[in-house]
Amino acid sequence: MAFKKVNENTPFTKAVIKMIKKIPRGKVATYGQIAKISGNSGGSRGVAWILHACSKKYKLPWQRVINSQGKISFHKFTKEYKTQRRLLEKEGIQFSDTGTVSFKKFQWSKKNAPKKKIPASISTMPSKVKPKMFGD
Description:
Layout: H1 11-22, E1 29-30, H2 31-37, H3 44-58, E2 65-66, H4 79-90, H5 103-106, H6 120-123
Parallel strand pairs: 1-2
Helix pairs in contact: 2-3
C-alpha cells in the first residue's frame, strides 16, 4: 500500500510541527490536543499522519504525543511501542500498571508553555515611554 505524501506547506501541517516542537521533556500531549491548538479540532488523525511523515525531517519529539486515553498508540509488544515507552520513561514520564500516563501530572498545556523571556528593562518600562533607539 502506497502512502500519500504529506503537504508540508499547509497552515495546519506547519502549526502541528510548531506545536509538537514546543512540548517539553517530561510532558505529553494528545493527538486531539495538538490538532485543536493547531486549528483543526477534528484533525487528530492528521496529526498522527504528520508525525509519521515528518518526525525525522523536522526532528520532532514524536514520543511525547499519545492517545486520548493516556496510552501509547502502538500495539503493546511492538518495537515502536517499546521505543516510545523507553524514551518517555527516560524523560521522567511514569506509566501506571495498565500502561497509562496521568494527564493530571504529565499533560502539557500550551498556556503553560515557556515563552521567550523579555529583558527586565523592557518588561518594566512604562507603556507610554518610547524606547531610545541607537543613534537617537
